[in-house]
Amino acid sequence: SWAALASTCAATEASSDAAMVHVDAAEAYAVPGRYINDHRDTTRLNAEFHKSRQLRKATVVAIRPIHAGDEIYAAYGAAYWRARDAATSDDGAT
Hints:
Elements: E1 11-13, E2 21-23, E3 47-52, E4 57-62, H1 78-91
Antiparallel strand pairs: 1-2, 3-4
């Protein structure tokens, strides 16, 4: 099992509201953390993001054992989903 999984991604502003910052790894193909997903079932979360606004990056830390082949899930946070929903509605996408 992994005691901790660490990777970094650039943090970007989610909106003009400086309080809303999220990790955007859309084009960071070499960063393993970009493949971490959120899960609606919070009992499936096995990692979490430790964000540093000052350093503009996030570290991913296992919160329980993660075994080879396990999917890694960490909550993206409410600000991420609000920004995503706003961007989707602005694009006219459904």
